[in-house]
Design goal:
This is AB hydrolase-1 domain-containing protein. Residues 92-180 form the AB hydrolase-1 domain. InterPro entries: AB_hydrolase_1, AB_hydrolase_fold, Meta-cleavage_hydrolase. Pfam families: Abhydrolase_1 (PF00561). It comes from Fagus sylvatica. With 214 residues, the protein is α/β, with parallel strands linked by helices. It folds into 3 domains: 2-44, no CATH class; 68-167, Alpha/Beta hydrolase fold, catalytic domain (Rossmann fold, 3-Layer(aba) Sandwich), CATH 3.40.50.1820; 179-209, no CATH class. A hairpin with a 7-residue loop joins strand 1 (2-5) and strand 2. 39% of the residues lie in helices and 14% in strands. The strands form 2 sheets. The chain has a 4-stranded parallel β-sheet, with helices on one face. 17% of the residues are buried. The chain contains 8 helices and 6 strands; from the N terminus they run E-E-H-H-E-H-E-H-E-H-E-H-H-H. It is globular.
Length: 214
């Protein structure tokens, strides 16, 4: 039932004739389809042999206006999707970049026995991990909480961060910003907002977290 149709060489388009049955119905078939898609993407996106680790910057010549840093290491920091949420994008990016998509602490299987719970601690752990992998400079791509960690990482380790691309986040969640936001929604803590224990709490979360056009 799987067919391959024309598409970019690094990202082949694959579809299933029984779309509603596999995507909207049987979850087991859906998972099998996803695994087959991932397998095909991996086959199409094999990294060229002989690349150094980490990749060395290429010289900028002629009309090549891309920053050499973008051909080094690309670090993607996200929260809601975690690393498996960007499976196809990572495979495409990996043809030109050395891509790192770590699970931040307490996301996925990343844990610690230390008591710190802050973007600073997350940034410290990510930076140490990159150092151990031999990464000297990288471009950060951040979303949501991952963006906040990325900003803190750039502040703490400017020698490690070459450039940044972020969306859906603030540069820093200070106490004054947090207190003002909680006051607007009428709650005392973010745990009360994000982990409601009542129907009214769930309704409040949905009304504040979504927007409906008139």
């Amino acid at each position: 039932m799987m067919k391959k149709v024309a598409g970019p060489q690094h990202c082949p388009l694959v579809y299933n004739e029984l779309h509603h049955k596999t995507i909207c119905g049987n979850n087991q078939q859906k998972q099998a389809l996803i695994q087959e898609l991932i397998k095909k993407m991996r086959q199409e996106s094999k990294r060229p042999r002989g690349l150094p680790w980490p990749p060395k910057p290429a010289s900028t010549k002629g009309n090549d206006h891309r920053s050499p840093a973008l051909r080094w290491s690309l670090l993607i920091l996200i929260m809601e999707l975690r690393k498996h949420g960007l499976e196809f994008q990572v495979l495409a990016l990996a043809r030109k970049y050395k891509v790192y998509v770590p699970d931040l602490l307490f996301f996925g299987r990343s844990i610690t026995d230390r008591s710190e719970r802050s973007p600073e601690f997350q940034a410290e752990c990510v930076a140490k991990g990159l150092r151990k992998l031999g990464v000297e400079r990288c471009t950060l791509v951040g979303f949501s909480y991952g963006g906040m960690v990325g900003f803190k990482m750039a502040e703490m380790y400017p020698d490690l961060v070459e450039s940044m691309v972020f969306t859906g986040c603030v540069m820093a969640l200070t106490k004054s910003i947090s207190d003002a936001a909680l006051k607007r929604i009428g709650l005392k803590s973010w745990s009360e907002f994000l982990l409601p224990d009542s129907v009214q709490g769930v309704k409040l979360l949905l009304t504040r977290a979504t927007y409906k056009l008139p």
